[in-house]
What we know:
Helices cover about 40% and strands about 15% of the residues. The protein is built from eleven helices and 13 strands. Helix 1 (about 15-25) packs across helix 6 (about 185-195), helix 3 (about 85-100) runs parallel beside helix 4 and helix 5 (about 155-165) crosses helix 7 (about 215-225). It is of the alpha/beta class. The model has no long low-confidence stretch (mean pLDDT about 95). The longest helix is centred in the N-terminal third of the chain and has 19 residues, at about 85-100. Bound molecules: NADP nicotinamide-adenine-dinucleotide phosphate. NADP nicotinamide-adenine-dinucleotide phosphate (NAP) binds near residues 40, 75 and 78.
Amino acid sequence: MKLDNILVLGGSGFVGRHLVAALAAEGLRLTVPTRRRERAKHLLPLPTVDVVDADIMAPGTLEALAHGKQAVVNLVGILHGDFERAHVQLPRAVVAACRAGGAKRLIHMSALGASSAAPSQYLRSKALGERVVLDAADLAVTVFRPSVIFGPEDAFLNTFACLARYFFVLPIACPQARFQPVYVGDVARAMSRALDDPESRGKVYELAGTQEYSLRELVELVCAITGRERLVVGLPGRLGSLQAFVMEKLPGRLITRDNLRSMQVPNVAAGPFPFGIQPQALEALAPAYLAPIGPRERYPQLRWRARR
Ligand SMILES: NC(=O)c1ccc[n+]([C@@H]2O[C@H](COP(=O)([O-])OP(=O)(O)OC[C@H]3O[C@@H](n4cnc5c(N)ncnc54)[C@H](OP(=O)(O)O)[C@@H]3O)[C@@H](O)[C@H]2O)c1
């Protein structure tokens, strides 16, 4: 049976906008709560999407939102802040809300490298969140673990492109860190396929792109795509930690020491992309949104990154 009437938590975010668009294109009815409607305004024109002003952490809100839904997708995740609350307590509350509201299907977004033995709080809390949802034996749960995700609104390649615009020397911590970036559209396709695939129940899927890169290679690739000749300098361990220590005190928290600890684990997949989907290559897609363009064309990207 085709599932319909789906609650998408975190649907206003980077992955959410692509997943919601993909599901809405199939005519599915979706509810997307947001703390700031302005942030979800790109979803407002979609006819089957109901954007609701709500703080899903507030008591009783999730239960009310999940009531009568057939499925819940949880995309909420943070890179710094209260990991326990966002990655463990929220999934627990989502499971409870599914049970109370009658939703039998739960799709949960984790991260590649999630493990109780991981060096970072981010990855350990993601592992705890996975445990919480997979232990809910009465629900049909599927977990996704993507590597770093790229796409027009990403906070990864776009950040390096932005830094390369203003600085001639780019000092990066953990230059040897390994990533296998995956296209946001492929992530959305995999999640959408899983929704109706009974085989995916109880499974954990890793999502990664066509190729592995070191962080240095990725930064150099961004410089090449944007046509900026920049000196990329790898910072040795202690200097990298010092940089992260300073950055985590600044607004925007470009990088934290916990992020550096996550980068100690290779962010690469053990197997092929699931559901027979052929993932798309970074080199084929990233130039379309990273290559320098005029201010008018850049305006939507700038607004998205400024969260306006
Ligand atoms: N992007 C990546 O490279 C990447 C890689 C691996 C895993 N992931 C995982 O994929 C998921 C989606 O990532 P994303 O890049 O789409 O994230 P994002 O752009 O930051 O979106 C996260 C969404 O969660 C919602 N949210 C609701 N309550 C929140 C709270 N208390 N704190 C923080 N956010 C809250 C936010 O909605 P409102 O602000 O509208 O309320 C926001 O739209 C996350 O679980 C992330 O950990 C992402």
